[in-house]
Write a structure and sequence with these properties.
It is built from five helices and no strands. The longest helix has 37 residues. The two termini are 17 Å apart.
């Protein structure tokens, strides 16, 4: 019983930590580009702020996944079964890794858009549209957590 609980919370830890680390990296990648672009286009700070914050959402998906497993499906109890704990571990690993990678790549897309705006190009909306694509995979991974949670209740 305690081992199952431990395995499940390792999954939760991976879910929150990896997606949070990805968000931290993604935000700093875009933030570094914003600092450089501000030297040339100080008036575009609002655009840079939005693009810099965008990769931070994947970290929120890690918390949303935990919320689903804890409050919606009520799986994370001391009575968790081996199958449920394995499902939580797998879901946590999947969301964590996808959140990590999508946040980093989204940060790179946003950084390129910020650099282009800093050079005088009007690409804010186009950058937002292109930056949504890596975000989609984090949302799909969160949906996977929902499906896994509903399958093992």
């Amino acid at each position: 019983m305690d081992t199952n609980f431990l395995i499940a919370y390792i999954g939760v830890g991976l879910m929150i930590a990896l997606s949070g680390i990805g968000s931290a990296y993604g935000v700093t990648i875009a933030g570094n580009a914003a600092i450089g672009a501000l030297k040339k286009e100080d008036s575009k700070f609002g655009n840079f702020l939005v693009l810099t914050a965008l990769p931070g959402t994947q970290g929120l998906y890690g918390f949303a996944g935990y919320y689903m497993l804890q409050n919606i499906f009520n799986i994370l109890t001391p009575d968790i079964t081996p199958i449920q704990s394995a499902a939580v571990l797998g879901a946590g690993f999947a969301l964590g890794v996808v959140g990590l990678l999508s946040a980093i790549r989204q940060g790179q897309v946003c950084a390129n858009g910020i650099a282009s705006i800093g050079q005088g190009n009007d690409v804010f909306v186009k950058t937002l549209i292109l930056a949504v694509f890596p975000e989609l995979y984090a949302i799909v991974a969160l949906a996977g957590v929902f499906l896994i949670g509903s399958a093992v209740v």
